[in-house]
Amino acid sequence: MSRVRLLSTASFRLTALYLFLFTLSAVAIDGLTYFHMRRAQERAFADRIEEETHALERLDRTDGRTRLLANIAARSTIGSSLVYGLYAPDGARLAGQTPLSAFANGQPAAGWTESPEWEGPEPDEATPDIVRMLTTRLGDGALLVVGDERTSVDMVLRGATVAFAWGLAATLALGLAGGLWLSRQFLNRLEAMRSAAQSVMEGDWRRRIAASAIDDDLSALAKTFNRLFDRIEKLLLAQKHVGSDIAHELRRPLAKVLRELERGRDDPAAVARAMAGVEDVLRTFEALLRISEIESGARKAAFVEFELGEVAADVVEAFRPAAEEQGRALTAHFEAGMRMWGDAALMKQAIANLIDNALRHTPPGVAIEIHGAPTREGARLEFADRGPGVAEPDRSRLFRRFFRADAARSAPGSGLGLALVAAIADLHEMEAEAIDNRPGLRIVLRSVARRL
Questions:
Q1: 3-state secondary structure of 452
Q2: Which of 125, 181, 336, 370 is the most exposed place for a label (fewest CB within 10 A)?
Q3: C-alpha distances out from residue 98 to 64, 87, 145, 184, 286, Å
């Protein structure tokens, strides 16, 4: 995979954009943190000097100047980090180690000042520490100076700056590495999809996109493509066999029509039989065209939400008189909540075909039971009878075009009724399955994907 292609992927661009925005946010947060940290350090630094100044002021007021001078001298010699100074009103130094060169014009003035730590020329090999001092005028005009090196504050702030810089660098490095890794994973999965699609285009209809352990949008897209490939394969296989199936299934009725027409020269009744045969052929073609229309998905544009139980109950009531005339018990129970998205008219036709199939291929007196219930995916319909059933090898072919089990070949029909049921079920994202009812046959229509 080329580096240029990797950097041009949508995932890498989105990662880079997110990294840029995240870096800006981190810089803003670090800036605010540094600002507040600096203020806190400066405030703590100033508070320490101000507290020391106030303590010495109180000492001067309560114990007198001599005690103040002694205290300053003692504090200046015990290794304290603070620096002290006491100056007369005329600027003469009375105590402490702060040099006059630390002040502008060599004279101390009330307020905050900063100065290099030493008094003489600065050494070439070192950077002088900065001393920040607070000068306070006492009651008799004398000036009290208390200061401290800024080293500790500057070290904390420099450490915070370095930590922020390393944090930003790590963020950029990890973000870039993560972006490259995500882009590579994204491209690998897209390449798998492209390769599968290319194989299908070249005629390998069994090729599918491998499932991923990650359940995300790309996995959902891969599943959608696999369902699309399944449908294309099914349609192409159906198209491949439909020509030979039509030729095989219609050759006999057309040959019968031809014979009847030949007899029609001498027998007028043969013409009527030939016309009936032509009508059967036309009905077969109409059924094939209807199956093709349904498989094309054109009817999906008219899909609406409806209650499948109500539709099935209407069909059952329509067939109940015919079932009673034949001495069959047609019972049905449909649970509430069988909402689905689809074409109610087509579902009526599928249910009617299944009931009609059960009535035509079971002996009189056989009970036919229909049950419907909602499922997590949508709905489930079962059509069960206690008739002779269908042999196991034939059950898997029951929904193919023109297929008729040996026991049903003598009965009228074209073998397209259940094929139409399968097409309608597939259009509504349902599966049609034939199961041994022991005895009899059970046909199940169940949703395999939620539509609502």
A1: coil
A2: 125
A3: 22, 10, 8, 66, 112
Q: What is the CATH number of the domain that holds 36?
A: 3.30.450.20
Question: Last residue of a domain, which of 296, 321, 343?
Answer: 296
**pLDDT, tens digit, 9 for 90 and up, residues 227-251:** 888 877 777 766 655 555 555 556 6
Per-residue pLDDT of 330-386, as tens digits, reads 889 999 888 888 888 888 888 988 998 888 888 888 888 999 999 888 899 999 988
Closest of 421, 389, 425 to residue 405, by C-alpha: 389
Do 287 and 386 reside in the same domain of the chain?
Answer: no
Please tell me the predicted confidence (pLDDT) of residue 383: 92
The residues, ordered by sequence, that sit 6+ positions from 229 with a Cβ below 8 Å of its Cβ are 196, 200, 205, 207, 208
CA distance 228 to 233: 9
- Total of domains in the chain: 3
Q: Where are the alpha helices (DSSP H) in 204-339?
A: 217-263, 268-296, 308-325
Do 228 and 339 lie in one domain? The reply is no
Which phi-psi region, left, alpha or beta, contains residue 96 (left: φ > 0; alpha: ψ -120 to 50)? Answer: left
What is the C-alpha to C-alpha distance for residues 218 and 224, in angstroms, rounded to an integer?
10
